[in-house]
Amino acid sequence: MTSKYGQSAMTAEAMSVAGAGRGLRNNALNGAAYNLGQLVGGGEIDREDAVSVLLDAAVAAGLHPQEARPTIESGLRSGAAEPRSAPESTGAAYRPLRPPRRPTARPSAPKAGAEPPEKWQRKAGALVEFAHRLLLESDSQLEYLAGRGIGRDAVREHRLGWLPGETGAPPAYFRSRRSWGLGPKPTGKPDALWIPRGLVIPCSREGKLVRVRIRRPGEDLARDGDSKYIVLPGSGAHTFLAGDGDKAFVVVEAELDAVLVAQEAGDLATAAGLGSSSVKPDADTATAMAGAVSVLVALDFDRAGAKAWPWWEQTFDRAKRWPSVKGKDPGDDYQAGVDVRSWVLAGLPPALCSGEGMVGLQTSGLRVERAHRNIPGPLVELLTILRGHPVRIVRGPKGPEVDVPDKHYCYRAPNVIGRAVRLVEFDRLTRDYLARHPDRVITARNLLGPIGTVGLPTFGS
Q1: Which of 171, 292, 323, 342 gives the lowest tally of CB atoms within 10 Å of its CB?
Q2: Distances in whole angstroms, Cα of residue 254 to Cα of each of 18, 178, 204
Q3: Alpha-carbon distance 71 to 69, whole Å?
Q4: What is the CA radius of gyration of the chain?
Q5: CA–CA distance, 341 with 331 (Å, rounded to integer)
Q6: What does each C-alpha distance from 355 to 40, 358, 376 come to in angstroms?
Q7: Residues paired with residue 311 on neighbouring β-strands, in sequence order
Q8: Please, where are the H alpha helices in 19-64?
Q9: Residue 265 confidence (pLDDT) above 60
Q10: Using CA atoms, how far apart are residues 366 and 450, in angstroms rounded to an integer?
Q11: How many Å apart are CA 196 and CA 215, to the nearest integer?
Q12: How much is the pTM?
């Protein structure tokens, strides 16, 4: 059972974690877990209480539970190895004893993308155009992309293509490496350039083709070691970018997910497709991200994505982990019915969500028209959260509160829930507006009410 001194310690440490800034949160959590672990070892704190308090504080600070739990467990174990109890003097205030400072590795610098040789660019460019024409003629492949939310306009904009292959099993193309400006292979047939069938995803910079990646069909992956994605030999190590802005970025793994995000929210942010959670952005992209107002890191919602997050948090001051809502990536979310644009809007700061980006937002049966651009940014941000996530606002005796009927969802999207709580609890205008709302339960459908009912034109007056 936790003592009074232990309760005081947990409160103090939880506040230190919740108030830690980006780049400091994980270290703050480790230190707090170490301190509470000492008191767990000394019998002042129940271990389950410590885990619960630290996890809540970590989520409030913006850490994901999947990242926070290992840090909490490690810190508690280290602290318990050096137990201590409350001071003998009655009423003594809690004083933390910080753990030894652990050296932290500096994040590795991204590499610059080397431009492929001119001969390669000519050959690869012809291949991309050939594949693009074939894709526009392939109803089955266009249907597959449409199932992932990618329309014909996006296919044309990004020159996506399809290569059906011409020989072999599975079908592929074989060309001379020398004709592409490439040196011989060290093994096998030295001059053979293998180009598998699949969806072609080109990457260009300043009008020059620098990389070609091919997504192979599942039926062609006969062996466990077969790769789903093949980068055409000679390609540069450039980051796939969909969009040309530099104010905000959404970082995803698959290039096709980047195409989807750009299609739905390219006016709000540039989508960056890395190809894998372990890949870092190239030097030019990293420089642009360092100067951006917001970097939403939406790597796949899995163990590898969680493992990759610390590098982003340490490298970019404005990075925020922004996992998908219902699946492991934006493509899964689209197929599950999530509004991808609303998901992006909910993660961006209000300053980036004004003007044209907000015109035409729709809730069920309600349209925010051009005449109502004066709706405050925080309220529109709350609207996007309510639209894209299973969250509602309930007006109770103590005022409006965020309600999440599916409690497990708090662990799936803690950043979204945390942002909703901040808007409802700490943004004065939003809280005042909700307090005057005529309905007790507030959702995306009735947040704005029939225009004028709640007094939007005189909001805050």
Answers
A1: 171
A2: 32, 30, 16
A3: 5
A4: 26
A5: 12
A6: 53, 6, 11
A7: none
A8: 25-41, 47-61
A9: yes
A10: 8
A11: 9
A12: 0.59
449 phi-psi bin (left φ>0, alpha ψ -120 to 50, beta other) = left
Could you please report the per-residue DSSP string of 365-420? TEE--GGGTTS-HHHHHHHHHHHHSS-EEEEETTEEEEE-SSTTHHHH-HHHHHHH
Tokens 């877990």: give the residue.
Answer: 33
At which residue do the structure tokens 């109502």 appear? 372
Phi and psi for 127 in degrees, rounded to 5?
-65, -45
φ, ψ of residue 456 in degrees (nearest 5): -55, -45
283 vs 116: CA distance, rounded Å: 16
CA 121/CA 235 separation, integer angstroms: 9
353-363 average pLDDT score: 39
- Classify the C-alpha dihedral 412-414-419-420 as positive or negative: positive
pLDDT tens digit sequence for 132-154: 999 999 999 999 999 999 999 99
- Eight-class DSSP state of 190: T
Question: Rounded to whole angstroms, how far apart are CA atoms 238 and 249?
Answer: 16
How many whole angstroms from its chain centre is CA 432? 31
Task: Identify whether the C-beta of residue 164 lies closer than 8 Å to the C-beta of residue 217.
Answer: no
Which residues make Cβ contacts (< 8 Å) with residue 277, sequence separation at least 6? Answer: 253, 299, 300, 304, 305, 307, 308
Query: Of 109, 110, 127, nearest to 235 (Cα)?
Result: 127
| Residue 204 backbone dihedrals phi, psi, to 5 degrees | -125, 155
Residues 90, 93, 99, 100: what is their CA dihedral angle, to the nearest 10 degrees? -100
Q: Is the pLDDT of residue 216 over 60?
A: yes
Peptide bond into 171 cis (omega under 30): no
Helix (H, G, I), strand (E, B) or coil at 362: strand
- Say what the pLDDT of residue 89 is: 62
Q: Smallest Cα–Cα separation from 276: which of 239, 241, 319, 243? A: 239
Report the candidate in 249, 236, 233 with the shortest Cα–Cα distance to residue 180. Answer: 233
Is a pLDDT exceeding 90 seen at residue 122? yes
Tell which wins on pLDDT, 364 or 90. 90
Q: What is the mean pLDDT of residues 299-326?
A: 87
Output phi, psi for 213, to 5 deg. Answer: -120, 140
CB burial string 56-90: b at 16+ within 10 A, e below: bbbbbbbbbbbbbeebbeebbebbbeeeeebeeee
Q: What span, in angstroms and rounded, lies between the C-alpha atoms of 112 and 110?
A: 7
